[in-house]
Specification:
The chain is an alpha+beta fold and about 100 residues long. The chain has helices at about 25-30, 55-60, 65-70, and strands at about 1-5, 10-15, 50, 80-85, 95-100.
C-alpha cells in the first residue's frame, strides 16, 4: 500500500508500505521527520502522533481508551483527527493513506 506523510514545511514523503506494518514503523523506515517512536510502539510515549487526513479518518478507525489517554500527553496540539501512528496498521483498505505530521 502507499502512504504519504505531509510535513509541517509543506513537503511530502510517499512510500510503499507492507501490509501489517504499523505507520510508526513505516515512518521510521522512511526517515519521516517528526516521527520519533521513542517507545517502539508500546503506547507509552506519544512521539508518533499524527493527524489523519479527513478523507481517511473513518477508514483508520477510532482510538481505544489507552490510545486516547496517550494522545492527551502528546506534545503537539490534539485534534479530532489525532492518532498514534503505531496504532494504524497498513492494509489494502488504506492504500493512498495521508498522514499529517504535527509541528513539534
Amino acid at each position: 500500500m502507499k502512504v504519504t506523510w505531509q510535513l509541517p514545511d509543506g513537503k511530502e514523503i510517499s512510500a510503499d508500505v507492507e501490509n501489517g506494518m504499523n505507520m510508526m514503523q513505516a515512518a521510521l523506515a522512511h526517515n519521516v521527520p517528526g516521527i520519533i517512536g521513542e517507545c517502539g510502539g508500546t503506547l507509552s510515549c506519544a512521539t508518533c502522533h499524527v493527524y489523519v487526513a479527513d478523507a481517511w479518518t473513518e477508514k483508520t478507525g477510532g482510538t481505544d481508551d489507552f490510545e486516547d489517554a496517550m494522545l492527551d500527553v502528546a506534545e503537539a496540539e490534539r485534534r479530532d483527527t489525532s492518532r498514534l501512528s503505531c496504532q494504524i496498521e497498513a492494509s489494502d483498505a488504506l492504500d493512498g493513506l495521508v498522514l499529517i505530521v504535527p509541528e513539534a
